[in-house]
Amino acid sequence: MSRLLVSTFIRMLKKVIFWFFVLCMFAYGVYTALNIASEARIGFVLDRCLFECLQLMGLISAIFTSLFIGSEYSDGTIRNKIIVGHSRIRIYLANLIVCAIASVLISLSYTVGVFVIGNMNGGELITETATIFLCMISSLMISITFASIMTLLAILNTNKAGNVVVSMILALVLLVSGSFIHQKLGEPKLYDNYVTVNEMGIPTQVEQLPNPQYIEGTPRIVLEVLSDLLPSGQAIQLADAFDTEGMTDESIAKAPYRWMGYSLLVTFLTSVLGIALFQKKEIR
Predict the structure, then answer these.
(1) Would you say residue 194 has pLDDT above 60?
(2) Quick one: 196 exposed, middle or buried, by C-beta within 10 A (0-12, 13-18, 19+)?
């Protein structure tokens, strides 16, 4: 297993697409931090830009995993591995682990870009170090979960071009679904109704009315679970969890434990399903 894993990892390092994404995400981290630094007069808060890249990781993982595993099929590498005696379980796990490592490294390259600019421009973290650490671990788990989902799709489809399209569509569907759920859960329970204004146009009487768009009860619980279960939902929550004053909601401090649990669950289920289906797949 170790030799198989090392050989797969070395092939990953030789892929131009991997280094392309690493450089792009590093540049994106630099760009994001520079934008925030330019708005600040004295120093700036790094918290608000640490997790901006997560919403892109689904799409990046879809493209990279599809191309990498697709090349394994088109080059005959997977077939040759089976011929020389490697089990399908080990082949699947080797590809999954390498794709997960690639996704983590790509994600970390963004973080490195942010900290490089932060160190150069007096950037600082104002949220507790323990909370930032947990959120960072959670963000890496999100990248691994995306890699697990995309590996499941890629290993079952020998058509590289077709798989890229399917994986990208799934990544976009996950992103749109996560955004929609996050928006619905973000609706306020009450909204201000401006009854009268004076001659200067300033409200003089305001009353709060129930928001008909606010979701409560069982539907809200279901949406909250879906938001935590989907890696895209977690990514959006993390990206929206910090601003110039640190955490936007104190409950975020405990959320990473829940997110990591859901990420492990999704990764485990997709891996088991992928291995079971790959065992039955006919490879020519």
Answers:
(1) no
(2) exposed
Q: How many CA atoms lie within 13 A of 213 on its CB side?
A: 9
Kindly indicate the confidence band of residue 128, based on its pLDDT and cuts at 50, 70 and 90.
confident
Q: Is the pLDDT of residue 169 over 60?
A: yes
Q: In the structure, what pLDDT confidence band is assigned to residue 52 with cuts at 50, 70 and 90?
A: confident
Return the minimum-mean-pLDDT range out of 7-16, 140-149, 236-245, 268-277: 236-245
Domain ranges of the chain: 2-189+217-280
- Helix (H) or strand (E) run with residue 7 in it: helix 2-13
CA distance 202 to 199: 7
CA separation for the pair 152, 274 (Å, rounded): 5
Whether 95 contacts 88, CB under 8 Å: no
CA 133, CA 262: separation in Å to the nearest integer?
18
Q: What share of the chain is helix, strand, coil (3-state, %, to 5)?
A: 70, 10, 20
SS3 label, residue 231: helix
d(CA 276, CA 279): 5
